[in-house]
Amino acid sequence: MVTTFQSSEKKINAGREDVYGFISDINNFTSLVPDGKVSNFEAQKDSCRFKAEGLGEVIIRIVSREPRKNVVFESDGSLPFQFNVLIGLEDSGTGATAMKIVLQADLNMIMQAVAKKPLKEGLEVVASQLSEHLNSREWG
User: In the CATH hierarchy, which top-level class contains the domain 2-21+62-136?
Assistant: First the structure.
């Protein structure tokens, strides 16, 4: 059963082209990896692998890019469930970008009961950290 989670909309004080440039290269996410929960993080432009506390090894790849609009990431099957993540971008006023993150996970009923709250909360944390980082302008 596919379960969908969506972050709240985050405002980035940068244009869509700049934000898209950041999210379309997984190497840029290295500085956002949380200490303690993730280890052995290795990134390339289109993929990354890491060990996540409680999950084991996770491999994620970019499966599609729509310039200035979105990037779609997908798990490779190393977990007990498949998922994809879409980071969507829209114009939000002069020089600003609205960003939302949508996660779709193929969870059985037991996994859904166990993972629903942590996935929803984790998605919101990722969206907040990403928007804070992008608003800091330390990346561009």
Answer: alpha beta
